[in-house]
Fructosamine kinase (Streptomyces swartbergensis), 284 residues
Amino acid sequence: MTAPTDVVARLTGRSVPGERPLSGDLAEVTLDDGRVVIVKRADDPSATRAEAAGLRWLADAGTVRIPDVHGHDENWLVVDRVTQGRPSREAAVRFGRDLAALHAAGAPAFGAPPPDGPADAYIGLAPMRNEPGTDWPGWYAEHRVLPYLRRAVDQGTVRSGEAAVVERLCERLPVLAGPAEPPARLHGDLWNGNVLWAADGHVRLIDPAAHGGHRETDLAMLRLFGCPHLEQVLDGYQEEAPLADGWADRVGVHQLFPLLVHAVLFGRSYAEQALAVARSALAG
């Protein structure tokens, strides 16, 4: 098997004096100039290509800080290591403002992949198709919610009789989605594990599933799995770009997609959460 040090030397053109394995597919590698990078392995070339393109697209907005991409090939990605610090209220407000500016950088369409990114991408370990659409409710139902609902039903994670509640929500999305908004430039997998509170007082975002989408989706993901100082993040966001009226009532609608992804990957407990969210949205 190819050594991470050999990969980093080839992709960066620098000699590599040291390596520290972090997991089976992740290692920390020191370059000859003292910088430290992370090298990550993926089995599917489209996953590596999508992640590299997503990181660069987010970085191009010049808002939230993103680790530099030093190189990639079909199976390997090399990025800057982030020296982590501790979450603070000040950093959270700054992150909220920067995230709002990132979303405002926009995308060509809902479902648009990053430039040079493949249509067949990933969210975590789950395949995710970036297929452009014209209106958010129709696109979200067709390309985000229903594909994972069908997989969950096929696996038996969601029972066939239970799927109807999610299908009804999809039918009502034009009403439930709130005011129309332009496509935002989304991180796309913005759970707390992908939000790194760096030692310099700025947040770094890693492991994106970047695409054009609705800005409330990133915010709903932050709430779904918890985020330090989330209320301060939201305060900073609203200062920069106020959310449309009723946004708090739509959080569950936007959480349905990641919950169904987790149901496909991790089982029944997430399916039950997805069904509860769908019932609540319909009742509201």
